[in-house]
Amino acid sequence: MTAEQQRLEQSRLRQVHWKRWGPYLSERQWGTVREDYSHDGEAWNYFPFEHSHLRAYRWGEDGIAGICDRRQLLCFSVAMWNGRDPILKERLYGLGGKQGNHGEDVKECYFYLDSTPTHSYMKYLYKYPQESFPYGRLAEEGWRRGKHDPEFELWHTGVFDESRYFDVFVEYAKESHETILVRITALNRGPDPAVLHLLPTVWFRNTWSWGEDPEKPRLWRGQDLPDARVVDIQHRYYGRRRLLCEGSPELLFTENETNRMALYAAPNRSPFVKDSIGAYLLRGDHGAVNPRKRGTKAAALYTETIPPGESMQVHLRLTDQVSDERLGNNHIKVFETRQREADEFYERLIGHEQRTTDGASVQRQAFAGLMWSKQFYFYDVARWIDGDPGSPPPPPRTAAGTAMPTGDTSITTTSSRCRTSGNTPGTRRGISRSTACRWR
After folding, report:
1. In DSSP terms, which residues pair with 316 in a beta bridge?
2. Within a 13 Å sphere around the CA of 279, how many CA atoms are in the beta-carbon half?
């Protein structure tokens, strides 16, 4: 067996949990039916994109090129800022069901380039414009066009003209089933030098605000290493971990809590809220982040002016080995090994002697799309209907049930199985009351 086949067998036998960490982090959580507590069932209007950087999600998290554990307790993804956008680029932008002339429609350029089934190696590409991201124009055109008109895409706005964008490659290589190496490479494709702020971000899914988790997890700045700065991580389920960030980035800490003041003109539970890192970077609000360097969300800020045709690169290490004294210089070796093992696995699976090189490449990237699309899906329908302890009760319409896809849709869960009931097809009441669902 190839090395990847051996990992798959170890995972199948539950000997080594190679699939505990993977690309299970959604790229868009806002506007989903799980986050909908409206009176009219209009999920897109109740939780639009404009709220996504301000509101703590109840049922899941999202990010660009992100990973998380299979319970989505701890999340990691890459945020960025080109110095011109009105908000920090933390998640994919898209139009809601009623905004797009053909319905829901993502308006980004990103590619799943590679992944093995155990996610021992993964590669992702995000194309980030150097000009201000055209949120308003994309929404206006989607609303203006009719259903017989073509869709208005990001590249139609001209933000990629003259190749004025960054190619941001995000790669993961598992040194072990609990130690993940991260390599982020940002290449300036444009004709002029351009500034890029990269913010690898780690945070906890908010489980403590809903009466679900009695113990709040925490992040804090650890002791600097000779070649890295450290975010220490503590969670009751996983214990101690650390994120090692190459070099001397500025470490920013806040809480994964809703900014109630911005949304509802109501007092915040904490002065440090979900969008505080963006407020610090974009508006220079130094009081927005926690000066004590602790919280439930943290980012390492790397800023560089990249000459045309050149790149910046950042290495990180997410690990349960809290005794590591250095980030280490074995990144290149581990990535080369995992890439070679991925090649061997797909050569065995696809068979280059039977396919053209182009055909094998297309098929391998198609597999990558399947692997990267695996997502954590948490939906406790009983609690969704009844509401959380200490929170206002959901509107009556929720308890009555609203439309869901018809058919016998099975969902694999970590504890049991839940599926739409044949007795009440097409309603939320038709789903058995199960927890911790995620697609497999």
Report:
1. 182, 245
2. 18
- Please calculate the CA angle 233-221-123 and round it to the nearest 5 degrees: 60
* CA–CA separation, 338 and 321 (whole Å): 20
Q: Are 8 and 14 in contact (CB under 8 A)?
A: no
CB atoms within 10 A of CB 83: 14
Contact 124, 65 (CB under 8 A): yes
Task: Find how far residue 436's CA is from the centre of its chain.
Answer: 18
Contact 429, 401 (CB under 8 A): yes
Q: pLDDT per position in the chain (440 positions), as tens? A: 999 999 999 999 999 999 999 999 999 999 988 999 888 888 888 999 999 999 999 999 999 999 999 999 999 999 999 999 999 999 999 999 889 999 999 999 999 999 999 999 999 999 999 999 999 999 999 999 999 999 999 999 999 999 999 999 999 999 999 999 999 999 999 999 999 999 999 999 999 998 878 889 999 999 999 999 999 999 999 999 999 999 999 999 999 999 999 999 999 999 999 999 999 999 999 999 999 999 999 999 999 999 999 999 999 999 999 988 889 888 999 999 999 999 999 999 987 666 678 888 899 999 999 999 999 999 988 888 888 887 778 887 655 555 443 333 333 333 322 322 233 323 332 232 233 333 22
- Give me the amino acid identity at 315: H
For residue 413, which phi and psi values (nearest 5 degrees)? Answer: -120, 170
Report residue 191 as tokens. Answer: 């004709």
Helix and strand numbers, DSSP H then E, in the chain: 9, 19
Element (H, E) at 80: strand 74-81
3-class secondary structure, 278: helix
What length does the chain have?
440
Q: Which of 21, 120, 181, 173 is CA-nearest to residue 345?
A: 120
Buried-state track 95-118, b at ≥16 Cβ within 10 A, e below 16: bbeebbbeeebebbbbbbbbbbbb
CB-based burial of residue 240 (10 Å sphere; 0-12 exposed, 13-18 middle, 19+ buried)? exposed
Q: Could you tell me the two tokens for 57?
A: 């999600």
Q: Which residue has the tokens 């933390």?
A: 90
DSSP 172: E
How far apart (Å, rounded) are the C-alpha atoms in residues 421 and 9? 34
SS3 category, 219? strand
Nearest in space to 80 (alpha carbons), one of 70, 97, 65: 65
